[in-house]
Specification:
The complex is a heterodimer of chains A (about 375) and B (about 400).
Chain A: H1 13-26, H2 31-38, E1 48-58, E2 61-68, E3 80-87, E4 90-97, E5 109-114, H3 120-128, E6 134-136, E7 154-159, H4 163-175, E8 182-188, H5 197-206, E9 210-216, H6 229-235, E10 243-248, H7 250-262, E11 269-273, E12 288-292, E13 297-301, H8 307-313, E14 331-341, E15 347-348, E16 354-356, E17 360-368
Parallel strand pairs in A: 7-8, 7-10, 8-9, 10-11, 12-17
Antiparallel strand pairs in A: 1-2, 1-6, 2-5, 3-4, 12-13, 14-15, 14-16, 14-17
Helix pairs in contact in A: 1-2
Chain B: H1 13-32, H2 36-63, H3 77-107, H4 132-145, H5 176-185, H6 187-192, H7 196-202, H8 212-244, H9 252-282, H10 300-309, E1 313-314, H11 318-323, H12 330-335, H13 344-357, E2 364-365, H14 367-380
Parallel strand pairs in B: 1-2
Helix pairs in contact in B: 1-10, 1-13, 2-3, 3-9, 8-9, 9-14
Classes of the chains: A alpha/beta (about 375), B mainly alpha (about 400).
Keywords (chain A): 2Fe-2S, FAD, Flavoprotein, Iron, Iron-sulfur, Metal-binding, Oxidoreductase
Protein name (chain A): Ferredoxin reductase
Pfam family, one (chain A): NAD_binding_1
Amino acid sequence: MTTPVPQGKAPRRWLTRLSAISDMFAFPLRTSHYVELVNPLWTTHRMHARVVDVWDETRDARTVTLKPGSNWRLHRPGQHIRVGIPVDGRHYTRTYTISSPPERDDGCFTITVKKIDGGRLSHHIVRNLKVGDFIPVGLPQGEFYLPDASPVQPLFITAGSGITPAMSMVRSLIAQERLPDTVHIHYAPHEFDTIFGRELRRLDQEQAHYHLHEVHTRQAPEDQNHFTEAQLERLCPDWRERDCYACGPPALLAALERTWEEAGLSQRLHIERFRADFAPIPDDAVGGRVRFADSDLDVDADGETNLLRVAEDAGLNPPHGCRMGICHTCNTTLQSGCVRDLRSGDFINEPGAIVQVCVCAAAGDCELAL
Amino acid sequence: MSTKRPLPVDLTEEQIDEFGREMDAIYYETLESRGEKDRLYILRLIRTQRSMALLGRLVIYASLFLLPAWGHALAGWPSTLIVMALGVILLGLAKILENMEIAHNVLHAQWDWMKDPEIQSNTWEWDTMSPSDRWMHSHNVVHHTWTNVLDKDLDVGYGIMRVTPRQPWKPAYLLQPVYFVLLMLLFEEGVALHEQAIVDVVEGRKKHRDIRPLMKHIGRKVWGQVRKDYIMWPGLAALVALPISLVVPESPLTVFLLVAAANAVANIMRNIWAFMIIFCGHFPDGVYHFTQEQTEGESRGQWYLRQLLGSANITGGPLFHVMSGNLSHQIEHHLFPDLCSNRYPEVAPRVKALADRYGLPYNSASLWRQFGTTWLNNLRLAFPGGTTPPEPARA
């Protein structure tokens, strides 16, 4: 019940004092719990958003327009939010990038979600979410955004639903009437299966500084349907002078990282991953006995399963958010032993180190403060 | 090796194991089937409960506009008190729902499976004087593990009453009919002070200063409750009454006392109801008690058996079950304490049939029979002697 209050606009002091007094009427709850009965968007103890519109971008991707609660803080284009959705009675949390620019007059924002095969939550959002539903959301987070003032000439490289942060950035720059010379290379299966396809093409025609290159991976010839340095040279000859903002599947991002590293320009490449890119698990990875010290529980774990999952399978319910290592809700302390960070493959074995249990697995015996 | 007194049943160890496996099957099958409709149940219930609480308090306020001093056509003590009683009943029912069907079950981790951050056993705080973390220890850990085991389960007589002839008699028990009534009226306060540590201080095993942090912790929660019901809500009414009293001859003090009294009645109403339901769980006729020695090396089947023999159900309709927090299904609650309570009514017939097949008693009767025998036992056991239920236990 006493979940941390989302820190939105700095609350005024008199308001804080007033709510401290009014909370005494609601003890052990807070006034906000009763305000929620009238309108969930007015609560302060947690944040909801109301679905005000849904729109299908492609056959399996949908844009959901959300009206956030009163504690909302405007996002920077490129940032993402955590969304909580109940499916079959259980509450899940996932992270989605905001696809709208912050310059919207109606106070709403949009997320654009592609249905993943076997993805319980994405399926629910794309197919079952209705206008009028309330869903819990977090505040915008993430470091993937354009610098505020310094002029950069961006090169966006996006694939599939990785378009969303770039879309928010481009829309925002246009709304502010400060769109610099921009090149955008976007990979999508084919012309009619491109998220925001019509809008991108319209911008390409209307905006003198915006240059779109679409690569349709199902239609292009075999040697041109994926990222290569030759293709990059052809579509954007001055890529070395630009700041690249990229979002897409791990294979694309890995290829980009190689190219920019070989050119000695790694600092000009900015990457947003939709899912944690796990390092290959060595064959000699071993699990071990995991001890959850606060819960006084011991379980065996293998060297591949993340410790959040291990804890949940053991009946615990540790706090967690994104399940991909970005929100740090699941941070806990390693008391002893060794765990492996599944993304980097690095071992963490210093007692007292912070462990993100959703992206770490046991590497031998370990003890966690959970 | 088996010189210890076995459980009071006619079953072999193999049969008890099989009984345990059948009970497990019911449990896991029901756990599997939890889903969206259970979530909607608890969310709607919480919404209803909070609306009732707020409405109740507003109706109590509204009744103040009917005080005789207003002088309008509807004004008068009878109309004031009738409307106020309505508000009190709403508020009292809201408190009952919160304590019994919502908080008690949330604190049993029955709803943790939803992983809803708002409805979690480790963060829920309830509308009663006992801090929920303290209660979870004495209830979930001590009482539910050691159900009806003498000298282990603090709930056997709550340390002040003799509820089974197996507790040796002492003269202090002569007063237990008085304790019974006092505890009924002050149940909320009793639960807050229901701590092994306090018993230890009274019996000289611990010093006052050892339990000071604990008392502070309980004190903070008690203060929050008292401040809400007896300072803030009456105070706000009195504050509004202050300027009005210049025009309408009604003292703000009367207004303050009326609202405080209304809240007190709502709290006492909840106390009496909770006391009745909870006392019917383990103290009516036909409930078995056990010794520590009987529980040594207890198997899962034997544990189930002890829960079945040590608990009693109350019969009634769906609304009655909700208002009793489904503790009217005390047997099912003790067998499956972390199964969400809205499922107890559907597992009850299966448990009853299972008990019947094994020739075991299933103690279920009306509220009047269960509470009546609880009260009569209380009177009888105030004096030495008394009778234990028949052994071995048979249906």
